[in-house]
Amino acid sequence: MAGITGINRQEVPLKAGALQKAIFNSANFSCIATDAKGVIHIFNVGAERMLGYMAAEVLNKITPADISDPQELIARAKALSVELSTPIAPGFEALVFKASRGIEDIYELTYIRKDGSRLPAVVSVTALRDAQDGIIGYLLIGTDNTARKQVETEQKSLDQRLRDQQFYTRSLFESNIDALMATDPFGIITDVNKQMGALTGCTRDELIGTPFMKYFTDPEQAEAGIKLVLSKKQVSNYELTARARDGKETVVSFNATTFYDRNRKLQGVFVAARDITERKQAEAQILSLALHDPLTGLPNRRLLIDRLCQAMATSKRTKRYGALIFLDLDKFKSLNDTHGHNVGDLLLIEVARRIGDCVREVDVVARFGGDEFVVMLGELGNSKVDSAAQATIVAEKIRVILGQPYVLKIESEGTADATIEHHCSSSIGVALFLDHEVGPDEVIKWADTAMYQAKEAGGNLIRFFGS
Questions:
Q1: Is the N or the C terminus of the chain less surrounded, counting Cβ atoms within 10 Å?
Q2: Helical (H) or strand (E) element with 40
Q3: Chain CA centroid to CA 77, Å
Q4: Backbone phi and psi for residue 32, each to the nearest 5 degrees, phi listed first
Q5: How many angstroms separate the CA atoms of 104 and 124, rounded?
Q6: Distance between CA atoms of 409 and 125, rounded to whole angstroms?
Q7: CB atoms inside a 10 Å sphere around CB 342
Q8: Which domain holds residue 230?
Q9: What distance in Å separates the CA atoms of residue 240 and residue 129, rounded to the nearest whole number?
Q10: Using one digit for the tens of pLDDT, what is the confidence trace for 452-464?
């Protein structure tokens, strides 16, 4: 037993030494030992594999600083000088300074291989000391950091692409001509673009976190729009009127869709609101032109018939009479023939104004065509006699005012303005209607017939249809 024990005691240091040698000569990390001045004295197999130098090429010849990136050494020296408040040279001293002060030091470093290529490494530095605690050298153990650097580079590239994509997306969001916003499923605003700010007069920060419906003249209709999107997933051309902080109102076309995360979980509603105020104004103008006489601004035949239909329906319901007054100017043709259509237009404009002064706001004055005008009186009375009397008063008032002289001012370029005084009268026909089975065209025909009776009788007269 004693013999065996003795043998084991001798084998332990041998095995430990073999283990240390195996570790030191591992090809998985570089092990570089230097003297106190930094000259390399040990360069293991791992260092040879990683850096491309054979040990004989570097031993007792160079320091680790000679195979390190010089710019990194300069940067490290500056950083350490600030950190430790002492000047540090950008050479070997920068690599071992902290270790020489007993401070643990692990840092990233780029080695320059023999072939000039670069090797990113993580380096751990330890000061080697003798029995009296004096520094006799340094041990630099490095591991290949290429894989991690590659991952970092790829991650940086991915992060940059993500930032670029976010910037691109935000740029599209902000440059859109429509007011854009996103809300959560409850209609609370989560994001907006600058056009939404312009539409509401509020900043992005003021808008985010507030109810979507708050910024429209009809909050209930706005809220209903959000609910409609949530139920149908998409809504197009839903009209709302936005109200800005200063009270300005803007008609918008609301187009929206729901949006989801990658797990198809509902996140909210994305809304695009386009200002259609000009379009609505253009539509109103087109409609007005379609329904009004461009010269006098009065309703035309089309609008007159529509209003007459309404009046006849009301008459049927209330059992109250209405009246249609049809008038034609006497001697109008002679004015056109003598002075031209421009002067005739001036007369028609003045005639329209005078007729308008003779009726109530609820009555309708229309230009039927040429020098023919129609006045529709509604809600006169339940008695035919009384209604005829009321219509006569209005018709007589019109006849008298149209018979007064007209002073028409003619403006000419290059010459002095001239005035023309013209006298004309009107022939007026009146038709009463109440709960009739006939249509509006028939009522107009009645009044037109009565007007021709007045004209054939010499003009400047009033005649009732059927009397």
A1: N
A2: strand 40-43
A3: 52
A4: -120, 120
A5: 8
A6: 106
A7: 12
A8: 176-280
A9: 83
A10: 999 999 999 999 9
